[in-house]
Amino acid sequence: MVLLRPSQHWQQINRLAYLGHLQQRLDQQSVNALYRTRVELQSPQGVHITLASGDRVSFCSNDYLGLASHRDISSTIARSVETCGVGSGASHLVSGHSRFHRELEERLAALTGAQKVLLFANGYMANLALLSVLAGRNSTIIADRLNHASLIDGAILSRARFKRYRHLDADDARAHADQAVDAGDSVVIATDSAFSMDGDIAPLATLDRLANDIGAPLVVDDAHGFGVLGEGTGAVKHFGLSGSAIMMATLGKAVGVYGAFVAADARVIESLIQFARPYIYTTALPPALAAGCITAINIMENESWRRRHLANLIARFKRGAAQLALPLLASDTPIQPVLCGSSEAALAASRWLDQCGYLVTAIRPPTVPQGTARLRITMSAAHSDADVDGLLSALAEALHQSKSNGHKAPQ
Ligand SMILES: *Cc1c(COP(=O)(O)O)cnc(C)c1O
After folding, report:
1. Ligand 1 atom nearest 120 alpha carbon
2. Could you read off the pLDDT of 198-244 as tens digits, one per residue?
3. What is the rounded CA–CA span in Å between residue 234 and residue 247?
4. Which of 167, 234, 246, 343 could be joined to 264 by an S-S link, Cβ 3.0–4.6 Å?
5. Cα separation of 194 and 200, whole Å?
6. Is 224 a known active-site residue?
7. What CATH number is given for 71-301 in this structure?
8. Each residue of 40-93: pLDDT tens digit?
9. Separation between Cα atoms, residue 389 and residue 135, nearest integer Å
């Protein structure tokens, strides 16, 4: 037995108290059907994947164009690692910025039509950077109620006042903006383009007009639009937004690799380089990944069949779901949520699909509002018509099963 001195003894008890507190919170997650677990892939990312328990058809990645394990991208990255090594070794402002980063930034600026582009480690950091530089203590950030968590956390980091408007409601946004302007605040408007958990699209043209009327920046998080909507060139070009719109997109979704970027006026980009702590105080993206992104963007641009096929799959899924009267949300994007209501119902449906060979994770609060737990189905250009048809029959079964088990039916 180890004898503890009194001070050590107290430390021990405090540590136990803290672990006990965590355990209580963890237990509560289980009670509320909110406990989250990770599935482990034993195969590359794709639509046909292997888990420890067997093969699945996956309908829940953000690999919208089927590029995450594309051979040409993998081999570009492998070759680049041979020539430039693995780690970037430093932040961009010290010695981590390479030719590959610059070339990708230039490629993205040409593609999106922006004056300048700045790369980030990932989209989460890019959003923190944007909002913390554009807004401060005397600002109000006007945000759609269903914006991505990274835009909410960016608002917290900025220390600005934070007003959320009703989902997709540009009039409500204008009312909040007018109030903030009257109070003497500078305003930043922020919205997802395609909403990550609902798949619907923000009224970007109207928000752009509002932003221009009051001389405020409009931050558009195009994580789910870039590479997918229209010609894949991003929300600003696709929706014809003005030069004051600032676009953020990730390189980890449709592009299939990792990283993110902001495309904007040169003065915005220069300000991010000078002032954005989530840019300055972090290691640069490995240069080989930047090289891989260039190959991915070339494929994205040259192989328009991927977007066409994806659009056909979305239409096929929506037609089938309508015939089966599945409770779909209104979305034309690859994000096709099926509303389940309670977390228990969403989990039960997800488990049923798993048994049928389909991987679709249940999305529960706080990721989505209470009572709107759902299956977030995502389509990829790598799916076949047969994959979609199979999912539809399994879904019909799953929801039927869930109802007969007495889970509250979604409204
Ligand atoms: C995924 C996502 C992000 C974060 O991008 P990462 O590169 O994965 O960090 C930001 N915004 C939205 C809307 C997203 O869906």
Report:
1. 7
2. 999 999 999 999 999 999 999 999 999 999 999 999 999 999 999 88
3. 8
4. 246
5. 5
6. yes
7. 3.40.640.10
8. 999 999 999 999 999 999 999 999 999 999 999 999 999 999 999 999 999 999
9. 47
3-state secondary structure of 221: strand
Distance CA 177, CA 400 (A): 45
Tokens of 32: 């509320």
Q: Where are the beta strands (DSSP E) in 182-280?
A: 186-192, 218-221, 245-250, 260-264
| Ligand 1 atom nearest residue 122's Cα | 7
Cα angle 265-269-274, degrees, rounded to a multiple of 5: 145
Burial class (CB in 10 A: 0-12, 13-18, 19+), 182: exposed
User: Which of 127, 144, 150 to mutate for ligand 1's pocket (most ligand atoms within 8 Å of CB)?
Assistant: 150
Say how far apart CA 164 and CA 368 lie, in whole Å: 15
Task: Give Cα 118 distance to the centre of its chain.
Answer: 18
Instruction: Tell me the pTM.
Output: 0.94
User: How many CB atoms are located within 10 Å of the residue 97 CB?
Assistant: 18
Domain extent listing, the chain: 39-67+304-404, 71-301
Rounded Cα gap, residues 359 and 337, in angstroms = 14
Furthest-apart CA pair in the chain: how many Å?
73
- Phi/psi for 84 (5° steps) reads -125, 5
